[in-house]
Request: fold
Amino acid sequence: MEIALTCLIGYLCGCFLTAVIVSKKFTGKDVSQIAEGNPGMANVMINIGKKPGFIVLFGDILKVAVAYTIVYFLFYKTLGSKVFFIVDLVPLLVIIIHSGVNLKVVKALQLPVHGYIQ
Reply:
């Protein structure tokens, strides 16, 4: 049960692309409409500016930290020191879902929160 809930939390946090929110705030456009359409920090930094790029970087780090913290506090009392194995799944899942925008399998798993599922 703990692993399934950990996967869900990592999945949900990975589905939110900070670059979409930042690009809409700074340009009014979705990041997929800018340059090559890569929803990453590098695309935002090159085509929108350094400040928005660093905001995206901070947001991406923050979503992993938030997911990690949620899982840690949910399961520390029940699992004790074993919680670190479970908690280590969170960043992995966030990164896989976040980075897999161009992979069809992972793309199908992403929520339409960021507008990349077509």
Q: What stands out?
A: Residues 2-110 form one domain. Residues 83 and 92 are 15 Å apart (CA to CA). The chain has one domain: 2-110.
